[in-house]
Recover the amino acids of this structure.
């Protein structure tokens, strides 16, 4: 049976951990929605702090922070123009015809939002 012996130093592992912290971050972003409703999101995860300690039968990661930065959600509503109908009421009892004006809501820039939830620098200690 073949054997393999590996020598690892605690300082070397801490240097590797620091290199990962400085160079590795994961992030996703996107939007979804249909019609007059849209949600946008952005989420990033990275590591901070922490040390590696070697034990005779294992290694420990101490005080490693998982940082969620950024955490951002936006909700937008695009409300279509709403108008009352133009209505005329015929005159009766000798009164003239009465017409009600058409009233329109959300005629220009009918977008509501974005409503933003921003929770940057939300971390977890392991």
């Amino acid at each position: 049976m073949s054997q393999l012996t590996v020598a690892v130093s605690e300082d070397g592992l801490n240097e590797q951990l620091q290199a990962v912290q400085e160079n590795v971050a994961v992030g996703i972003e996107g939007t979804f929605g249909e019609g007059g409703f849209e949600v946008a999101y952005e989420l990033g995860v990275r590591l901070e702090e922490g040390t590696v300690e070697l034990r005779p039968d294992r290694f420990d990661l101490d005080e490693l922070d998982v940082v969620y930065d950024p955490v951002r959600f936006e909700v937008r509503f695009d409300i279509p123009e709403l108008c009352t109908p133009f209505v005329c009421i015929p005159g009766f009892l000798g009164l003239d015809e009465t017409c009600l004006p058409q009233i329109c809501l959300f005629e220009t820039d009918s977008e509501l939002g974005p409503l933003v939830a921003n929770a940057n620098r939300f971390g977890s200690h392991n």
About this structure: Residues 91 and 97 are 4 Å apart (CA to CA). Residues 10-80+112-125 form one domain. Helices lie at 10-23.
